[in-house]
Amino acid sequence: MLLLTSYLQVDSLSTEQIAEKLSTISSMPANELLASIWALVVPFAMNVLLAVVIYVAGAWLIKKAKRLTRLVMEKKEIDPSLRSFLLSFISISLNILLVIIIIGILGINTTSFAALLAAGGVAIGMAMSGTLQNFAGGVMILLFKPFKVGEFIEAQGYMGTVKEIKITSTYLTTPDNRLIIVPNGPLSNGIINNFSQTGFRRVEWKISLAYGDDVSSAKQLILDMLAKDERVLDNPAAPFAALDQMADSSIVIVARCWVKTEDFWDLYFEINEAIYSTYPKKGFNFPFPPQLDVFVKKES
């Protein structure tokens, strides 16, 4: 039986050829024409019905996936700006996938469409490789939170307070009020020293004294200074002092104590000044670096 579908393929046909096919179709017996139409319409109708069912089911699954993703991100306390971007990205990606599936079910050739989409994605990815790396780094930072806004960190050779975390870069304000913009790609893959995470920091001083000075008295003097300061904490450990080194021209006393992160620099500088002004008054001597005398003998 001659099927109607063979006469409806009019791609690349001339006007005369199309007219000839239409004439042939019109001259077909009624029963043969109806059989051909039935053979053409029924599979297409079944494909349309299947496409509708898959679209409804796919739309429902996409809605559930977005809701579940939103709940997970809210539980993880992900930044709202990143949350909105990720939900939009997931929604668009899933809907594009659903449309491609439906087009394939309807019998439309998706090979060219998929190839064009893949080529465009590769081209965009190559052109924006650095930006995409920074974007991925920003997502990782916002997800795992190695630091937060307001914390003092050291990363990529810079120290500063985190002012803002954006999707591709992080803004740091240095102690001398410089604004440093660090790309999130290297930042997420590098070493991050977060001084604010625990809330406490250990301060350390090293005091060089002359040989012959009383070590016990030197240790007790620095411990007394620390004991009088209310910023010094006894937890996680009490203040500590010990003989650290016996260097070439001096002995070195090391002293350590714990303070709140915000008190670190103030206490460090104030105790430095107290050491310099108090130790000489108590009879201790700060040695000078070793000197080398060179004598030149002039021959007559």
Report on the architecture of this protein.
The chain is of the alpha+beta class and about 300 residues long. The protein folds into three domains: about 5-95, no CATH class; about 140-195, Roll (SH3 type barrels), CATH 2.30.30.60; about 200-280, Alpha-Beta Plaits, CATH 3.30.70. About 50% of the residues lie in helices and about 15% in strands. The chain has eight helices and eight strands; from the N terminus they run αααααββββαββαββα. A five-stranded antiparallel sheet has the order 4-3-2-1-5. A hairpin with a 4-residue loop joins strand 7 and strand 8. Helix 2 runs antiparallel to helix 3 (about 80-105). The radius of gyration is 39 Å and the shape is elongated. The N and C termini lie far apart (about 130 Å). Mean pLDDT is about 80; it is low at about 1-10.
Which SSEs are present, and which pair or pack?
Layout (H helix, E strand, L loop, with lengths): L14 H12 L3 H46 L4 H26 L5 H17 L1 H16 L7 E4 L2 E8 L3 E5 L5 E5 H6 L2 E3 L5 E10 L5 H14 L11 E7 L4 E10 L3 H15 L22
Antiparallel strand pairs: 1-2, 1-5, 2-3, 3-4, 6-8, 7-8
Helix pairs in contact: 2-3
